[in-house]
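FW: tagging you since you asked about this chain on Friday. Here's the raw sequence from the shared folder, copied in full. Didn't touch anything.
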Amino acid sequence: MHTGTAAATTPESGGEWATPWRLGLCGLATLAVAYGFGRYGYGLFLPRFQAEFGGSAGLLGAVTSIGYLGELVALSVVACWAGRRSPRLPIGVGLGCAGAGMLLIAVAPNTGVLVAGVAVSGMAPGWVWTPYSDVVEDTVTPGARAHALSLISTGTTFGVVLAGPAALFATDSRWRVVWLGAAVAAFLVMAWNLRTLPSAPATRARPREPVRWLELTRRRGTWALFAAAASSGLVGAVYWSFAGLAVATANGEDQRVAPALWTVIGIAGVAGVFTGRFVRRHGLRSIFVVAQLVLSCSTAILWLAPQGWGFALTSAVLYGGGFMVGGTLLSVWSSMVFPDHPTRGFSVVVVFITLGAAAGPAALGLVVDLAGLTTAFAITTLLALATLVALPRHTLTRSRETR
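HL: got it, structure written out here
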């Protein structure tokens, strides 16, 4: 039986709410491909790419900024399509970009083709993440929406868990086999989404007046959300781009430590699945503060003590939990600020994430070449701590969600 019809069934259309697991697992697989491997896997393989194609560490790390710029283009299109096209259209396009980009990386004969592959696959997150906000709003029972969003957003961590062991396999030219396999996985997940997601735009009643983008940005508390989003993008992009290289360099070019780092990040990041529950129990503001402090400690270790497996893996544990919970928190926070325009509102949030992510590897890549990796992570740590000034105004609790 075609599951797309069931997924689209809501009380407004005379049916029942969908369970968060059915939609959540599909979204989890999507983000695992688009983010966990297609986006962040590049940093894991950076030492391998440097050995294969040459170039400075800072320059190759800055290549990721190109993908983030492509994501901005995708986000602008998705925002225009929201409520007008089926969400499976942008999600299908995004997974197609992920598959095509990773295929280019797999067959790249030179740096130019490698950069093209990174640019194409880097567009995928802009297509796939925000449309799930509308799908969750329209098909999942209100009390389970935070859980569904948390499950979807944490797909990144499962992709990272798989990328770590895959990098251990990727000795010599076998890294190409890994990227080819990831491309195939992207196309398979695309087929799953096309079968699962509703074929029509959302049936839930939307406000009839046209969306005024400036008005969305003027809502109470939005700029704290945008500042936190930009910081999350910048800090995350720097860590994903340079952490693997930092621990490998500090540990005598040991090629095993970076894949181990990625695997531990992914395992620790499973904590992001429980973000919705954490927020209901302890409040949005408290979880935000904890996530930022944990994230700051993870980058501080790479600044002050990157040498030794114990320090490297401690950084990975802290980063996996802090980044995944903090990133998932943004989707929950956005759903509170923009309940009437979930995809459009979250698209604005992801624009700020992407702007921070585009600036991070480019600016800190220059710092890496001029002053070294430790200086780059010192700056990143201070920026992560400075984000604590962007405290959320919202304090979601179990009783308030029920009302």
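FW: The radius of gyration is 20 Å.
HL: agreed, and Residues 1-15, 397-403 have pLDDT under 50 and may be disordered.
FW: great, closing this out.
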